[in-house]
Automatic annotation (TrEMBL):
SUPFAM superfamilies per the UniProt record, alphabetical: P-loop containing nucleoside triphosphate hydrolases, PIN domain-like, Prokaryotic type KH domain (KH-domain type II)
SMART domains: AAA, PINc
Cited PANTHER family: AAA FAMILY ATPASE (PTHR11603), MEMBRANE PROTEIN (PTHR11603:SF147)
Segments forming domain PIN: 1-115
Chain spans, region Disordered: 525-565
Recorded GO MF terms: RNA binding
Positions with biased composition (Gly residues): 534-562
InterPro entries, sorted: AAA+_ATPase, KH_sf_prok-type, Nucleic_acid_metab_PIN/TRAM, P-loop_NTPase, PIN-like_dom_sf, PIN_dom, T2SS/T4SS_dom
Family recorded in the similarity comment: In the N-terminal section; belongs to the PINc/VapC protein family.
Name under which the protein is recorded: ATPase
CDD domains: PIN_VapC_VirB11L-ATPase-like (cd09878)
Keywords: RNA-binding
PROSITE patterns per record: KH_TYPE_1 (PS50084)
Amino acid sequence: MNVVPDTSVVIDGRVSKTIEDGQFEGATVSIPEAVVAELEAQANDGYDSGWDGLSELKRLADLADDGVVNVEYVGERPSAMERGHASEGEIDALIRDLAEDLEATFITSDIVQAEVARAKGLEVEYVSPEVREVGTLTVEDYFDEETMSVHLKTDTVPMAKRGALGEMRYEEIADEPLDEATMDEYAREVVDGAKESSDGFIELKEPGMQIVQFRDFRIAIARPPFSDGIEITAVRPIAQTDIEDYEHADELKDRLLERQRGVLISGAPGAGKSTFAQAVARYISDNDYSVKTMEKPRDLQVGPEITQYTELGGQMEKTADALLMVRPDYTIYDEVRKTNDFEVFADMRLAGVGMLGVVHATRPIDALQRLIGRVELGMIPQVVDTVVYIEAGEVAKVYDVRTEVKVPAGLTEEDLARPVIQVTEFETGVPEYEIYTFNRQVVTVPLDGDEDGGPGSESGVDRIAKQEIEREIRSIAHGYVDVQLKGQDRAVVYVTDDDISSVIGKGGGRINDVENRLGIDIDVRTHDENPHSGAGGASGGTQHAGGNGHAGGNSGSGGGQSAGQIVQPEITSRHIVVPVDGHQSETVEVQANGEYLFTATVSRGGEIQVSRGSAIADELEQAIDQKDPITVVPS
């Protein structure tokens, strides 16, 4: 009798066991070189399956030495191309072909292989993968009721994190370090247990790293060369809570059941975010909502009525697409870290699914700021309307997030009204932060006026305003610029004597534009007038008084301006059209013979239109008639 085993049954170790049971005694076991190549590749990549298969080949060789069976190696090693297409069945096809050529019985523990072989007319012996009841893993012995995680590594004394939430201690839990052989034995026991137990599965399998979910334990196994030694990290939840155990429980329950929400559950590592997420998931599910999870790895402790999904085809986007077909009421996304995670979270939320995302953050507002730049600003309150901050296992802060059209706090001009995201303390209803666009930048402003808590410290609005004024003036001036705020809507800018005419511009036009953009009245003065510089104001005088009144307006040569793009304006019956190349949607200055005329935003079509009859158009038209060079300079 001749038998040909495939890779699956060799890895499973069932060939030798079947022989020892007397089924194939005296047979010739023809082992395809393709099987050896697969096992060798897996072992080289650090996969336990490769080593398990090689151990089985050694057992078969021992049986051959004892005269129980004959063992031979047949066929040729697969090519690199065939190995590259192993997942598509190329190696399996080579093995089946050998069994057919040898007229041998084909042995496999892969049900798909068995059915394909039968369809091709082969005699097939299907050996079911062995499933046995797995008892306690050795790594479990390192846990007690206060242990959250155990950390084992070759040549290192075992360590553990123990204690209550928020009071974890990282401490030694043994006297002697573990040697490599012991660590290897522990690692193999974990992987075998996950394979053999219905309560376990391998969550992630990459060269040098495997993550196993075994009952309540999530166990990560790292091997060289990915790590510098065998390392096992086993984690389990130490607390099972109900939503009623938390502060604001009644309000949060009403809020979650009122309608599908977008919630970020934030906090530092080990603060109890996942424990709270589990409590929320169970509560929602118990109140007749369909709940799913998106996790990698899957380690939330929830009931069987909540299906836990991981990456589909290695991508959470595909998982999201599948969930949108399932249409859950709520999805728990654990954890939201990378830009792609935030985008998937936002897409599902905007599709109408209630979302709870677990986010690492050291302050409550940090969780919301993670969305800035990843989600369009105006969409943030539609994506996230509630932020829950967990600290030491307790709900430390809850924020309500909504949009209002208003003048941001600290600014007073009516024409500065804009959409503002208000972040309000849930319990008191007092706004604590505002998020809005200020001069094309997204800013987050604390509303207590004293973010750092120090006496006399600047408010967030003050700091932002000062930064923006400095940025605007530095784009014009060449020398040192000093900005001093005199109130919410007034500032004094000190510049060098050489820069003062450039900053003011012709007829005060340039500083007027800066004021209009920022909504702040600006006095321009020389450094000699700065009382903080020690100069005492010996010369100069105020060049620009607040309230849009400008003195000393002509800049003469417009000194200090960088060279720009010379353009040829076109005069039509209604407009003067200034063509601009390469600055679509950007703010630019238009100058005539080096003198500032006005600031404008270039259209998407790459031009600026000035209505004839306006003061600006008259100045521009006069410059064109005088054949002055018209220049466009980025602002």
